[in-house]
From TrEMBL:
It catalyses: queuosine(34) in tRNA(Asp) + GDP-alpha-D-mannose = O-4''-alpha-D-mannosylqueuosine(34) in tRNA(Asp) + GDP + H(+). Coiled coil: none annotated. InterPro entries: Glyco_trans_1, GT-like_domain_containing_1, QTMAN_N. Keywords: Glycosyltransferase, Signal, Transferase. Residues 1-18 form the signal peptide. It comes from the Eukaryota. CDD domains: Glycosyltransferase_GTB-type. This is tRNA-queuosine alpha-mannosyltransferase. One of its GO terms (molecular function) is tRNA-queuosine(34) beta-mannosyltransferase activity.
Amino acid sequence: MNLFIVFISTVFLHRVLFSSSVLNLCELVALRPDLARLKKVLYFHENQLVYPVRKDQERDFQYGYNQVLSCLVSDAVVFNSRFNMESFLSSIGSFMKKIPDHRPKDLDRLIHPKCVVLNYPVQFPDVSREHDKNPELFFNTLIKLKEKQLDFQLSVLGETFTDVPEIFSSAQQLLQSSILNWGFLPSKDQYLKVLCDADVVVSTSKHEFFGVALLEAVHCGCFPLCPKALVYPEIFPDQYLYSTPEQLCKRLQELCRRPDLARRHVDTSLYSWTSLKPQFQALLSAEGT
């Protein structure tokens, strides 16, 4: 009787490692050298080199340093907007000067050839209130409209955290007669219904790497008013942008008097998964690595 010996081997079939920029990819590859042969794709939805903090001393150097190192070991570095990419690359030099000695140079030149912009597909997550969204400008503008006795209705959506800017409570009192919705909505369907019922969505952000929440609102039929800065000029034509608080107030006055103008909407189909799927598939192809 013959002896049959069977050898069972597990075949490693993965070809691409797709990771967020919040992951320390350099550390992961060092701990798992078997992953080094994969095509390593790093996706930036934000970058820590220019992420806003109230004081520069509060910026955690390690977070930004990890992102730079991750770029160096990756095969492709993907950003959700050109603004995100350019602000990151242009800040590497000054950021690395914070190292006391042995400062590496020209890292931006090493990373740039790997970089590509691939927008994030439109989804519908919850929104939140943060200091970098500049609520003071938003509410002060609406208070001016109220003082001019212009007619409007207001929905302010998002979770309430422990550190809420004071302007929220004072504005809620001053604008009470115009408020339709205020605060967190318990279901996604309710959130989307408010967006679909609204005419105008306003951004007063001090920073934005892509602006998913705003695109979601526009996708639901809202007319956007955004700063002529950051990522917004990449996404929206000039008629949806303002440069100063005075321009924002003027545009809102015009829309209050002529609400029919808010029925003209920008096309967001370019940011749908249907449109972006082929680009993601091409990016995640392991060919050429």
